Each structure stands twice: as structure tokens, then as C-alpha cells.
Amino acid sequence: MKKIIYLLTLLVIAGCTADVKTGGETKAAFLDLQKPEENPILSADSTYTFLCPIKNELVQWQKADVFNPAAIVKDNKIHMLFRAEDNPGAILGGRTSRIGLATSEDGLHFEIYPTPVLYPDSGEFLQYDYPGGCEDPRVVVTEEGLYVMAYTAWNQDVARLSIALSKDLIHWEKKGPAFAKAYDGKFLDYWSKSGSIITRLEGEEQVVAMIDGKYWMYWGEQFINLAWSENLYDWFPAVDETGELKAVIETRSGYFDSMLTECGPPAVITEEGIILLYNGKNSEGDDASPDLPRGTYSVGKIIFDPADPEKVLFRSDTCLLKPTLPHEVTGQYKSGTTFAEGLVRYHSKWFLYYGTADSYVGVAISE
Question: Nearest-CA neighbor of 120 among 165, 167, 172?
Fold first, then answer.
């Protein structure tokens, strides 16, 4: 009886209809996202150079494009970790990506650290992250102050969700592919991306959450899977009775997420439940949503049950954020992109950071 009352309470909060998996539109968090006039807030800058340890030569590491940022609050400043690409002459996916760092006191104007903080090097994981590089970070922090980055290692063959640790956001220790040890390495060479580790709020600070004594992470782009860990770098994906990956969220024909459902910023436990903002890609075929141009990336919302992180309580039928500004429909990806990866609570507001058309960094703010 208590479980039924608890579920009904969450449904009322979420504004769901009888079908809790797609149940209409929520009237709660992140419906009021607004794009300030400062957008785009970060763009490529060819004046920044870096001695590449692989090539042993200076490279203009953010000459081409900057996009797909993580964000976290440290020392009362927003720290953004963004993906930067070096060679504007190379095609999409053919460049080397490195992760840069920028800081801000207002969430809109950023000072860039002169060199990248995570990049391909001569270490043991070179085989996974070169020549494509280190891409698309999401960052969380533990109660003890350890920063954990989930990023994509891209060797231009297989994308692998990988983990790095830091105590200061500048110096990072790579721990390698997240699924290397799970199930005797069964998923080491499986295409994997976009890890959103579950967090909780302590005041305005987001810290990594534990549920039933474990850490949990949503990940994936073709579908969304749930994984668990005891140390934040060795992760075990959820599998079904046949030992194959279990999908907790899949694409929907005719909706904004008809082609891809890709995890966004770190999920956060709120009064509604576990909120996961995710990036939906509209199909380029007949199953596309008629409400968006085909191929468009936009942002949706899912609410999971904190007592059972696989259980969906709500899923938005329409997107919360979509391309509307000129720079969001030009650049490398002209179909239109608002691709969210960073979410922070700062000065009593939510700042959602996103990549635009794989070329710039944008922000939307919610009260």
C-alpha cells in the first residue's frame, strides 16, 4: 500500500497521465529554459597553442570548433570542460579532440585555461583515444572532492565510454574504458558513449549519489542503459537474462527522439525523482517527428524512480530545448543541434550548457 501511495504522489508531482512512460508534459523542473542574449558563450580561438605529446609539435588545439561542454561548480565559480577540435580542414569525425577548461563567475563570460587538460598522450590508453581524441565530457564530484569525468575515447574505429579522475580539474588520471572489466571484457569493444552519473543536491552543490550502496550511471545513444559501480571507474552495465544489454529507454517513432536517445548531463535526484535530461535526435526517415526538421538534436526529460533507477515515471513527449538561434543551425552540423552535457545549480538558478551544431557552446537558464 505504501508503495502505491508513493508512486501516485510522484505521478502527481510529475504531472503525468495514466501512461507513466510517456505521460504528457510535466509542469515542474526545466520547462522555463531561457537562452540569454550572450549566446553563443564560447567559440573557437586559433590563438591557443599546445605542444602535442604524440606529434611533438605545436597545434592550435581549438582552431576548428568548441562544443559539447560539461560543467561543475568549484570555489564558487562555474568550471566548464569543453570539447575542442584542432583541424578545420578535416571532415566531421576526422579531427583530434581535446578537452579544455574555462571558468566563470556569472555563468556567461568565461576565462579559458591556456592548454587542454585531457588529451591523447603516450600513456597506456593511447590505443583508445588516438587519433580521434577525447570527446564529450560529463563531470561529477564526490563528497570527498574527487572529480570524475566520463568521456568518449575515440580512435576513429570504436567509441568507448572512458573515465578519468582529478582533484583539481586540471590534472587528470585516465582509468581507461569504463566497461573493460565487466563480464570478462564482453563490452570493452562495444560502441559506448555519454555517461550520466546520478547525483544529488546538498544545498546548491551536486555530489555523486549512492543508491543501495552503489554508484549508478545512465549511458548510451542508440538506447539508454543503466550501469553500476563500486569505485566510479569500473562499471557494470545492466544486462537481460541472455546477457545482452538491457534498454531502459528506446527511441520512439514520430517523436523528437525517433533516431537517438543520448544521455545528457549527470542525472540529479530531486523531489520529482531522478531527472535525466537527454538528447534526442529526430529521424531522417519517414518515422521522424513532423514538429522538427529531420536530423535535429533537441533536449528531453525523463524521470526515474529513486528507489528503482530502471523504472520510468515520466518521459516528455516534446522537447524542452531545441535549435532556434542562427548559430544552432549552422556549422559542422547544419540540421540543427542543441546537445546538452553540463547542468549546474548556481546562484539559485540552473545553468544548462550545450553544444550547438558541433561548433559553439551555448547556455540556457532555468529559475
Answer: 172
pLDDT tens digits along 140-164 = 999 999 999 999 999 999 999 999 9
Residues 6+ apart with CB under 8 A from 202: none
Residue 344, all three cell numbers: 549546474
Q: In the structure grid, which three cell numbers stand for residue 177, read together?
A: 574504458
- The alpha-helical segments, DSSP class H, found in the chain are 2-14, 126-129
The β-bridge relationship of strands 97-104 and 77-85 is: antiparallel
For residue 35, give the nearest of 337, 335, 323 by alpha carbon.
323
Measured CA to CA, the distance from residue 277 to residue 283 in angstroms comes to: 19
Q: What is the rounded radius of gyration, in angstroms, for the C-alpha atoms of the chain?
A: 19
CA distance 204 to 347: 8
Closest to 35 (Cα-Cα) out of 357, 356, 358: 356
The amino acid sitting at 317 is D
pLDDT digits (tens, 9 = 90+) for 166-225: 999 999 999 999 999 999 999 999 999 999 999 999 988 999 999 999 999 999 999 999
- Cα 96 from Cα 130, distance rounded (Å): 8
pTM of the entire predicted model = 0.92
DSSP string spanning 215-284? EEEEE-SSSBEEEEESSSSSEEE-B-TTSSBPPSB---TTSTTSSEEEE-SPPEEETTEEEEEEEEE--S
User: What is the torsional sign of CA 209, 76, 153, 284?
Assistant: positive
Measure the CA–CA gap between 79 and 72, rounded to whole angstroms. Answer: 5
